[in-house]
Q: What sequence folds into this?
């Protein structure tokens, strides 16, 4: 992983993956540390960020244990937004530290993959399905 977007995706996946587990308390404190490092102790908005994070964790924890992985995947986008507010996209080293700390505690980090198709020419309409499709270029 080399781009901040990939690191951000991995960090949000690792945080979401700890939701509903005993490791969440540790993860929550690490997010608080990130917030305070960027904004300072007692900065406005910390309670709101933690409330959002805790609400997501409660949603994941309320699901049956065998279904939590799917729910954790569903909350990654809001978790990503929370992490951006804590560290900013220009601080990938802070996110990498979070990933490393969670991995050291036993959290699994997700595999981030991307597929790129180029050089195709279509003489008609193209139907595509999937999540996060980014189509560019001229038609």
A:
């Amino acid at each position: 992983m080399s781009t901040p977007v990939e690191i951000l995706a991995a960090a949000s996946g690792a945080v979401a993956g700890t939701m509903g587990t005993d490791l969440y308390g540790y993860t929550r404190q690490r997010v608080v540390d990130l917030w305070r490092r960027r904004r300072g102790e007692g900065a406005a908005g910390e309670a709101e960020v933690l409330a959002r994070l805790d609400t997501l964790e409660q949603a994941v924890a309320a699901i049956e244990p065998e279904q939590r992985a799917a729910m954790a995947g569903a909350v990654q986008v809001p978790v990503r937004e929370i992490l951006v507010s804590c560290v900013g996209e220009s601080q990938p080293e802070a996110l990498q530290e979070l990933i490393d700390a969670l991995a050291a505690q036993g959290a699994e980090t997700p595999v981030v993959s991307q597929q790129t198709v180029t050089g195709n020419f279509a003489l008609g309409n193209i139907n595509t399905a999937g999540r996060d499709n980014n189509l560019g270029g001229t038609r």
